[in-house]
Amino acid sequence: MSTASQLTSTEPVDRDATAVSINNLNKWYGNFHALKNISLKVTSGERIVICGPSGSGKSTLIRCINQLERHQQGSLTVLEETLDEDRKRLQRIRRNVGMCFQHFNLFPHLSVLKNCTLPQTANLGLSQAEAIEYALTLLDRVQMREHANKYPGQLSGGQQQRIAIARALCMRPQVMLFDEPTSALDPEMIAEVLEVMVDLANDGMTMLCVTHEMGFARRVADRVVFMDRGEIVEEAPPQQFFDTPQSPRTKQFLTQILDHGVTTA
Amino acid sequence: MTVLTKQLHSDRQAPPRHPWKHLATRWIKKQLFPTPFQSCLSLTTLVLLLWFIPFALDWLLFSATFVGDSKADCVGDGACWLPVTQRIELFVYGFYPDTEIWRVNIAFGLAASILPVLYLKQVDRRWVLGYLIVLPFLMWWLLKGGAGLSEVSSTKFAGILVTIFLGVIGMLFALPIGILLALGRRSKKPAIKLLSVLYIELVRSVPVITLLFMASLMIQLFFPEGMTIDIFLRVLIVLIMFTAAYMAETIRGGLQGISSGQFEAAEALGFSYWKTMGLIILPQVLRNTIPPLLTQFIGLFKETTLVVVVGVLDVVGIAMSTTSAPEWLGLEHEVYLFLALFFFIICFTLSHYARHLEKQMEKSRL
Ligand SMILES: Nc1ncnc2c1ncn2[C@@H]1O[C@H](COP(=O)(O)OP(=O)(O)OP(=O)(O)O)[C@@H](O)[C@H]1O
Ligand SMILES: [Mg+2]
Questions:
Q1: N or C terminus: which one in chain B shows less Cβ crowding within 10 Å?
Q2: Where are the alpha helices (DSSP H) in B278-314?
């Protein structure tokens, strides 16, 4: 078991290292061209927010990074490792890249604590005691420690999403991917999840978030990436992105999203 | 509203002297005589039952003969249970040597302990799983002997011993094979997928009795001269392979019920294929499919009776040999009723257990 080497992720990261590098990525679903020539570089510690209209390929892009979707053209380098057919390498990358889903996807047959310890014992080779200790620290951090023995079905959406974040963090990832983590939540629960994400960002985690929470983008993003019809249309720091959008498609999207009263606070 | 309060009021004013009597009449009215048509049906059934039950009880128990040595002792009008009571050891243990019967008893005990073990929630799942894996080998060793125990030829196996043995060992092997087949059918590797589909569809479209005949007659053709496989083992393999094909379909249904999000979450956390299946997907699938799987076990248990056609004497075989023995000639009714009772008790317990599990699961699924 190559466990020891995987725990080194807690070491301070090189600030200028490239965490994710995407070059001319193309992806088709059958005949449908879902991603067109996507190139994106994310340095360690950078926070990227990806937005765009429905069906623009945001999820597809983010899911290509940990290969939940396979691409057909272009290259993808994650944490210095270039993705190829090698399954062992892919698993190593996946263990270093955490992901949170729109619908949480907690394991319903396991308690909250077990949700957080199982990935550690099964994939990092840690002992039960070590796993529990680390899981409890993280559950504390997302303020879910008192629910450790409950089952996912007994918790609210916001609580489940916070646990999902803790579960992903249990693998000591160096990069976190979020795919609309708040869009399945009732409005009153969005804040508690965003709070955890802001906390994580302040800690220096490299993050790629697909979200429509423009307030969050303004507050934490280093860069906002706007996608439409499978292309990256515009990318800019939030200030510039929101105040002086360049492309007419971005402008249209922003007016739409602001009209619909999505939180901008 | 007013009617209701009035009723409440009058209820309070005149409390029925025997509340249970009141409730009983209400229940009877509601359940048995709600409409004229249903009243007719209820009355007919009642009359039939009233006529039949005393008659049946009298024949089965009150006028029946339980003790005696031979058919000559059966003098009453009722059933003659002597072929069963006189040969109960044969029915249960077959021709197993008398001095070794304790081994069979232990094996029965181990098999019966499966249900309480599944019941216990506090016990670590891994222990339960380990127990279920070891159990068939343990039973085989106990019955067949070797490694410290004296060997017993499987020609000595007969009766309930055979039925339980085939049923329990069959189930415990069929389930893992069924799981593998179900996974194979969903595999992305074309060869594995094709083989699984072919196997499942082939087995499911042939009656089990055909497979049993093939096992008893044809398998020998494929082995070199002189090498024989115990007929007992052969029918066991057929029953396992047959049940596995059906279980595979049940499990495949369960797999389809798991959302793709579960697979994705596991993949994203770096679980390998087997770990994803073993730790995350299958526990959920099995939990959801325990009731249908138990139903299949009941089916398997009843199908074991077919082995009699290839010369393995299970409990039905013993029953047949009893009814054709000259000293018990003409007592088929009693013998087959006993047989029916035996299967009823076991299958009813199992199906009751399945229903209990189903209710439990509904409760725990929030
Ligand atoms: N498995 C699939 N098979 C075929 N087409 C797909 C598949 N998944 C996505 N698509 C298509 O690819 C396009 C991009 O999908 P994607 O889910 O990435 O969009 P999105 O930007 O995440 O949208 P949303 O905001 O609705 O989540 C859509 O047009 C969608 O219909
Ligand atoms: Mg999406």
A1: N
A2: 282-303
Question: Where is B66: in which H helix or E strand?
Answer: none
ipTM for the assembly:
0.89
Which pLDDT does position B263 carry in this prediction? Answer: 95
Residues in chain A: 265
> Which residue ranges form the domains of chain A, and what is each CATH number?
18-260 (3.40.50.300)
Q: What is the CA radius of gyration of chain A?
A: 18
Contact A25, A226 (CB under 8 A): no
Gap between the Cα atoms of A177 and A168, Å rounded: 10
The single-letter DSSP state of residue B73 is G
A127 and B340 Cβ atoms separated by less than 8 Å: no
B209 burial class (0-12, 13-18, 19+ CB within 10 angstroms)? middle
Q: Is the CB of A5 under 6 A from ligand 1?
A: no
pLDDT tens per residue, range A91-112: 889 999 999 999 999 999 899 9
Cβ contacts of residue B7 below 8 Å, gap of 6+?
none
Question: What CA–CA distances, in Å, run from A204 to A14, A174, A197, A200, B234?
Answer: 11, 10, 11, 7, 65
CB atoms < 10 A from the CB of A189, how many?
Answer: 18
What are the backbone angles phi and psi of residue B2, rounded to the nearest 5°?
-65, -40
Can you tell me the distance from the alpha carbon of B356 to that of B312, in angstroms, rounded to the nearest whole number? 34
Q: Give dist(CA B5, CA A264) in Å, integer.
A: 56
Query: How would you classify the pairing of strands A81-82 and A97-100?
Result: unpaired
Whether B269 and A168 lie within 8 Å, measured CB to CB: yes
Which token pair is A6?
């995987």
Find the mean pLDDT for residues B315-337.
Answer: 83
- Cα distance between residue B203 and residue A31, in whole Å: 39
Task: Describe the crossing of helices B160-186 and B101-112 by its angle, rounded to 10 degrees.
Answer: 40
The string of pLDDT tens digits covering residues A3-44 is 333 333 444 555 568 889 999 999 999 999 999 999 999 999
Q: Report residue B133 as tokens.
A: 């894996």
- Which residue CA neighbors atom 30 of ligand 1 most closely? A55
Which residues 85-104 of A have a C-beta within 8 angstroms of B?
91-92, 94-95, 97-99, 101, 103
Q: Are strands A47-51 and A81-82 parallel, antiparallel or unpaired?
A: unpaired
Q: Does an H or E element contain B187, and which?
A: none
Rounded Cα distance between B165 and B152, Å, is 15
A182 lines ligand 1 (CB under 6 A): no
Residues in chain B: 366
Those residues whose C-beta lies under 8 Å from the C-beta of residue A177, and which sit 6 or more positions away, are A62, A65, A66, A97, A98, A99, A100, A207, A208, A209
Sign of CA dihedral B189, B194, B195, B197: positive
Element holding B178 (H helix, E strand): helix B160-186
